[in-house]
Write a structure and sequence with these properties.
This protein is α/β, with parallel strands linked by helices. The chain has a single domain, classed as Vaccinia Virus protein VP39 (Rossmann fold, 3-Layer(aba) Sandwich). The chain is built from nine helices and nine strands. Strands 3-2-1-4-5-9-8 form a seven-stranded mixed sheet, sandwiched between helices. A two-stranded antiparallel sheet has the order 6-7. Strand 6 and strand 7 form a beta hairpin. Helix 5 packs across helix 6 and helix 8 crosses helix 9. The radius of gyration is 17 Å and the shape is globular. One of its GO terms (biological process) is methylation. Keywords: Methyltransferase, S-adenosyl-L-methionine, Transferase. GO terms for molecular function: N-methyltransferase activity; S-adenosylmethionine-dependent methyltransferase activity.
Length: 260
Amino acid sequence: MAVLFTEKDLYAQHFDPKKHLEMYFTFHPEKEDINVLIGFALKNLHKAFHLGGIKGDTLIDIESGHTIYQFLSACECFREIIATGYMDGIREELQQWLRKEPGVFNWGSVGKYVCELEGDREKWVQKEEKVRKAIKRVLKCDVTQPNPLAPLSLPPADCVLSTLFLEVACPDLPTYRSALKNISSLVKPGGHLVLFVALEANFYMVGLQRFSCLFLDQKCVEEAVKGAGFDIEWLEGTKVIFPPALSDVKGACVLVARKR
């Protein structure tokens, strides 16, 4: 079921970052399907960074904006994390968490899960502070531009990470391929690209608002990554079944690739 592409101005008007976090990033017995997807991502990001040896000075996160789950393993491996987001409201949500403002989302259940993967569930408080210290900058980003961080021009990073974003930012496959090529410009030769991608989805809900998602299968993702100048080192996929009223997503994958 194709869904009309959600343009940037509609996101700015209708996307509620707090509601999004509550719906998709709260571990809860009644959210078994969502828990499986979060757990899949956290296990494979742990595999990529903590076990896989991806490390360096700088990691640039592409437009994940208001979330921090993607940094919980990476913060142990990089001196500096640059977080980015297109919308002001999404970047502000992250800034509020960094400033420890009242009412921000509690990442404790997600963080403790990662700490347990690392062997000590009770070190969440220290992990939380480590993430805060690692995030040095929160920048605006637009993956449709040749330099997504324009007008800034940063040195190429050791790793670029993108989680559940490109498939909602791109209306079609040519734009998706172009966005990956634009992102490639931010990675140094020999550096890594890490993607967490929703597969075979047309939409997802935040509250009562429906947002579009580019329908991608695993082959489309692999071909686009290779076409952007990367060699895939490994890819892990899983099937996903969400409540139909929430999303029609059918799967997900985490992919690690190295820039040629």
